[in-house]
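Hey team,

Filing this mostly as a record. A colleague (T.K.) asked me to run one chain through the structure pipeline before their review meeting, and I want the input and output archived in the tracker in case anyone asks later how it was produced. No errors, nothing strange. Just documentation.

Input sequence:
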Amino acid sequence: MIPVRPRARRFQILWDEEIERVGPERASLGRVVWKFQRTRVLMDVVANILCIIMAALGPTVLIHQILQHISSISSGHIGISILLCLALFATEFTKVLFWALAWAINYRTAIRLKVALSTLIFENLLSFKTLTHISAGEVLNVLSSDSYSLFEAALFCPLPATIPILMVVCAVYAFFILGSTALVGICVYLIFIPIQMFMAKLNSAFRRSAISVTDKRVQTMNEFLTCIKLIKMYAWEKSFINTIHDIRKREKKLLEKAGYVQSGNSALAPIVSTIAIVSTFTCHIFLKRKLTAPVAFSVIAMFNVMKFSIAILPFSVKAVAEASVSLRRMKV
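Output structure:
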């Protein structure tokens, strides 16, 4: 408990300041969460921007230069190509380092937030003489499911902040190296982003419904265990078992729907990249424009870099939707 108490105290101070400023009814727990982790989120954004710079510089610019020099037979050009290959390795290695740094920051931020909120809620519950206003099942859900939702939000939500920068950089570079036909692939990505956001919101709707059903199931199980003697005295076991089975069946259906939507949404990332590449090159060749190997491989590398924007977005939207519900429950 000693290492986590300063974090909970800092969060408690921020929450008290929020209540004094706007009152308990208008106080926003989300605003306090943002103040609590603001510096780390900004550090994560900086690390992601540096990762994008390395990703754009390596697989796109350097590959284009390497293929151009390799096409020449002279020994001088071969030496330059070797140096460019070493530079490509350096940029890729640096990109991985910045990417690992961003994830490390996010994980530590998520752990700090989860520990601070869980400790604060637990200490507030200990201050009550009785827990007549909340059941044991609801307490377990808040300390497990809701705190984990905030953990995921702190882990995934900072990552999409750099998506606009990534899209702009890739669009400008693709237009510069390939021409106007590169906008076809960019448009494919822009079309699929709203589709993914819709599917992520649909997934969040299913999970929000499942959370309410889970609360009901946990509450019913708590009543079952509390009144077990009375239930066995009147032989109500089958009735309670059937009730719990029905609730669990509804919960399972909602979670299955959410899982199917999430799986389909995650599968769009490699599909979108392939569709963008094929449609771009098809349009380019159809217009009878010249397409060389350096240009083709550079564009493919650039579209693969853009795949990150499609891959991470569903998890971020889902985490935001679930965290908003959890924050409302935690505020109570």
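Quick notes for T.K.: The mean pLDDT is 77. The chain has one domain: 5-331.
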